[in-house]
Amino acid sequence: MLLNVLVGLFYCSSERCKTFTSLNLLYPSIAEEKKKLGNDQYKAQNYQAALKLYSDAIQLCPDFAAYYGNRSACYMMLSNYLNALSDARQAVRLDPKFDKAYVRIAKCCLLMGDMVGSEQAIKKILELDSQSSAVKTEQQGLQQLRQLEKTIQSNYDSKAYRNVVYYLDSALAIAPACLRYRLLKAECLAFLGRCDEAVDIAVSVMKLDSTSADAIYVRGLCLYYTDNLEKGILHFERALQLDPDHSKAKEMRNKSKALKEMKENGNTLFKSGRFREAQTVYTEALKIDEFNKDINSKLLYNRALVNSKIGSLRDAIADCTRVLEINSQYLKALLLRARCYNDLEKFDECVNDYEAALQLQKTPEIKKLLRDAKLALKKSKRKDYYKILGISRGASDEEIKKAYRKKALVHHPDRHANSSAEERKEEELKFKEIGEAYAILSDQRKKMRYDSGQDIEDQEQDFDPNQMFRHFFQFSSGTGQGASFGFEF
Given CA atoms 103, 108, 109, 111 in this order, what sign does their dihedral have? Predict the structure, then answer.
């Protein structure tokens, strides 16, 4: 009985061995057929189908270098350079003299910006065949990339970020799969205020590698430059968790915290009426980061508001102008500058700003401000009769008379009879203006129209300042007889 069982087991084992032997002989031929079918699909540019067939061949014969080489080529056509590089390296491990695999290693490394890896692969190819021209293009690309990296670093160090982006585009044309170049470009775009573009790049990298500290740092940078300091700080801290030595994330985290604190401190001082202290804090905060245009525009506006409160109107205008250079749509800055221009009696500039503000926001309040500014401009274009008489706008009738008497006596032509012709002409003009001023301001109806900015009849037509002078002194003498008047020298 036992003997029969042993004989049966021996028989089964023998059959299994025969089966395994048959399969081992069969697998290579099946794998080869898979490879041929994969080649057909590759030639037809059906790379996904070819990829599956090459993978089937590898599964059947995992130690055959050519299959890895074919799949590597397929991955390259699909722009999956990381997997292409992995297969090419596996191919040379199985066959150290597989020159095509080294070529693919050189290409993939260059495309991913790994100059050292590309250089090592090229060296190996030339060791196998010193006359090989298979990697001539890669050698040229490698040389160009080295030069570009030097130029990029030089411009980055000098903060010429626009130039960095320009040269990075050239580098990415040679190494389009280099995540380092893409993230450096994103960083510079953020510095230039092009945060939407920078975010798109950072997010695309994070989809490939969610633990990329550089990508998370760039995302934080974009939040920081769009005045989202709290979220920016969280991203910088996350980047530091992934890479504790990430110096840029550390610097930006500290800068964000300092800016947030100073901004809040300045606002608190402003609200409590401590304007001088608030001005100092805003000024210090503006020194933290010249590239943060969004936050700096708000700091400048806040400082302009402080300057307007303490009477430094020209400084307020300068700050508002800087705000509008950063953001021409900043309505609050435009309205504040207009108000300061009005207070400085620069009515042309005031009207221009209110007109620009109205284009941004058509509200009844801005329309009224514009009307008032135009009226003030119109008034400013006329002669200032109050100024000519040297009196305030609230002067009484008696003060107007006294001012006229004093000015008329000073500038009467008889007083300057012995002066030069030019001096006499100047005094005559002043005498005439004084008469005009008195004619308007001494007449309640005309004065009211003048004060309200309405047009009044042209006083210069048929106006005789001497007659006005005689009439004034005739009646002010109390005789009604035109008392004689003369100057004593």
Answer: positive
